[in-house]
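Q: My labmate handed me this sequence with no annotations at all. I'd like to see what the chain might look like in three dimensions before we decide whether it's worth expressing. Could you predict it?
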Amino acid sequence: MRISIVSLLGTALLAGCVTSTPPTAVHQPMTARPAARNEIPPANGAIYQAAYVRPLFEDRRARQVGDTLVINIVEKTAAAKKSNTGAERSQDMEVSVPTLFKVPGKSFQGLNAEASHDNKFSGKGESAANNTFTGTITCTVIEVLPNGNLLVSGEKLVAINQGEEFIRFSGIVNPANVSAANTVTSTQVADARIEYKANGFIDSAQVMGWLSRFFLTFMPF
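A: Here is what I predict for the chain of 221 residues:
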């Protein structure tokens, strides 16, 4: 029994040490292969290659599932908010007991009582955010919508020393916005989802532990 418990603890520790891919919100899948052609391709020659041929009137812009498209990420957002709220309320009350004859409770006759209440509230809030994200990523067309728009998705993984950085992008591209160089800016992509996440020891050190988060949930101060 001891051996099984020790082995389970060791497995849990090893599982916690293994770095996993961070979750994503981009459209899935993040890549797609082109559909196989049913027709029999012609024989390849010294120059002619059936897999890469396109009719003379077609360019190299992405238009089918499996085609690649270069996305120039140029995102810059700025937002500011400032609010000020104030409220004040005061109330005074005075009670006196007159002198009455032949009434019980003579000890309270001539008693004066005063009460006052004052309540003030003042609240201020201010927030500002400035974000800039620039870069380039090549995505794959994973679906062609009925109206001709392209649903693209892609991921770029960069491993630096002990850490990994993930750049992910997905969105809907109008073929009319694709340039002759088969590129499009991120500001022209609808329903764009852009992610920049890291994975590794450095990123894990910046995350609060689960036990600290547990006590933080119940602490009133």
